[in-house]
Write a structure and sequence with these properties.
CBS domain, CBS_dom, 1 helix
Amino acid sequence: MKVENIMSSPVYTISPEDPLSHARNLMLKHKISTLVVVND
């Protein structure tokens, strides 16, 4: 099974160094309950 079969689009990402307030604002703005944390 591919990730595209279960994930919705667009996928919103944050960095581990981002403040919690940034994550909260993204989630409220886009009405989502999950963010992907990535190291770039």
